[in-house]
Specification:
Rossmann fold, alpha/beta, 38% helix, six-stranded parallel β-sheet, globular
C-alpha cells in the first residue's frame, strides 16, 4: 500500500508518517514544500502541477497533514482553504480512487456549550480566521465526491509540539526557567476548557482512517472526549518540569482562542466507525512532551 503524507515534516505529519510506516507492507511517501522526491506546496501549486506530483506518487491513500495555525488571514486561507480544494481537484484527475484523510480542526465548531460534547452533526460556527479557513477546507473535501474523510482534531499535545502552540511555548519557557524559585511565567487567561488529545492518538486515528474498509462518514471527531481547563495543562507540565517559580495569569491570550471558553468533542462516532479511542492521558502527553525537550527531571 502506497501512502502519501502531505505536510509529512510538520508536527502532526511526522507522527502520522511514523505510525503509518509501521503498517505491514506500507510504503510511506512524504510530500511537502521542502521534500526532495515529492515537492508539493498546497498554498501555491496549480492543480495541474499537483496532479503530476500525485500521478508520480501513485498513492492508494493520501493523508493531508498540511496546514497553517498562525499568520495573517490571507496566509491561513491559502493553506487551509485553497490547499484542500486544489488537492481534491488534483486527486480527481490523477488518483480518483485513492482514499483522502484530511486533518481538520475542532476550531471549526466555534464556541461550545459547557458540559455538552459537540457531535459531528452540530452546526459549524467558527469565530476566528483559523477556524473559518479550516472549515472551508473541510467543505472542499466533503463536497469533492471522493473517498474522503475529515478528522476534526482537538488540541494536540505531545512530543514535538511547536513553539507556536501553548504546550510547545510553555515547554520552552520551562526549559529556560529551570528550577529557579524566582522565575515567573506570565501567561494569558487559563480558564478556558479544551479537549486535549495526545498527538500519538491522532496518528493512530489517521492510520485507522486509512485502513478502514468501505466508505466513511464525511467528518469524524478526534479528541479525548473530555474538556480540561487550560490551567490544568499548564500546572501539569510545570510539575513535570520541577518548576519552583510562579505562574501568573493575565487578561488576553491566543487569538485562536478568542470567544471560545469551552470546547469538547463527542468521539463516539470514531469509536463506532474506526474502532478508535484515545489510549493516552493528558499526563502521558505532557510526560512525552517534556521528555522530548531533553530536560529529564529526576
Amino acid at each position: 500500500m502506497r501512502i502519501l503524507v502531505l505536510g509529512g515534516t510538520g508536527y502532526l505529519g511526522r507522527h502520522v508518517a511514523e505510525r503509518l510506516r509501521a503498517l505491514p507492507g506500507a510504503q510511506v511517501l512524504a510530500a511537502g514544500r521542502s521534500a526532495a522526491a515529492f515537492a508539493a506546496d498546497l498554498a501555491a501549486d496549480p492543480p495541474g502541477r499537483l496532479a503530476r506530483t500525485l500521478a508520480a506518487a501513485a498513492p492508494d491513500a493520501v493523508v493531508n497533514c498540511a496546514g497553517a495555525t498562525g499568520g495573517d488571514p490571507v496566509t491561513l486561507a491559502e493553506v487551509n482553504a485553497r490547499g484542500p480544494a486544489v488537492l481534491c481537484a488534483a486527486l480527481r484527475e490523477a488518483a480518483p480512487t485513492a482514499r483522502l484523510v484530511h486533518l481538520g480542526s475542532a476550531a471549526e465548531y466555534g464556541p461550545g456549550t459547557p458540559d455538552v460534547p459537540v457531535t459531528e452533526a452540530a452546526p459549524a460556527c467558527p469565530v476566528t480566521p483559523y477556524g473559518a479557513t479550516k472549515l472551508a477546507g473541510t467543505l472542499a473535501v466533503t463536497s469533492a465526491a471522493l473517498d474522503a474523510v475529515v478528522l476534526r482534531v482537538g488540541n494536540p499535545v505531545g512530543p514535538g509540539a511547536p513553539v507556536a502552540s501553548l504546550p510547545g511555548r510553555l515547554a520552552a519557557l520551562l526549559r529556560t526557567a529551570g528550577r529557579d524559585p524566582e522565575a515567573v511565567l506570565r501567561l494569558g487567561d487559563l480558564s478556558a476548557h479544551r479537549d486535549f488529545v495526545d498527538v500519538r492518538d491522532v496518528a493512530r486515528a489517521a492510520e485507522s482512517a486509512v485502513t478502514a474498509p468501505g466508505p466513511l462518514p464525511g467528518v469524524l471527531n478526534i479528541g479525548s472526549g473530555t474538556a480540561v481547563p487550560v490551567r490544568e495543562l499548564v500546572h501539569g507540565l510545570a510539575r513535570r518540569a520541577g518548576f519552583r517559580g510562579t505562574v501568573e495569569e493575565h487578561a488576553g491570550g491566543s487569538a485562536r482562542s478568542a470567544q471560545v471558553s469551552w470546547q469538547c468533542s463527542d468521539i463516539s462516532a470514531a469509536a463506532r466507525t474506526l474502532g478508535w479511542r484515545p489510549v493516552h492521558t493528558l499526563d502521558d502527553a505532557l510526560a512525552a512532551l517534556w521528555t522530548a525537550t531533553g530536560e529529564r527531571v529526576p
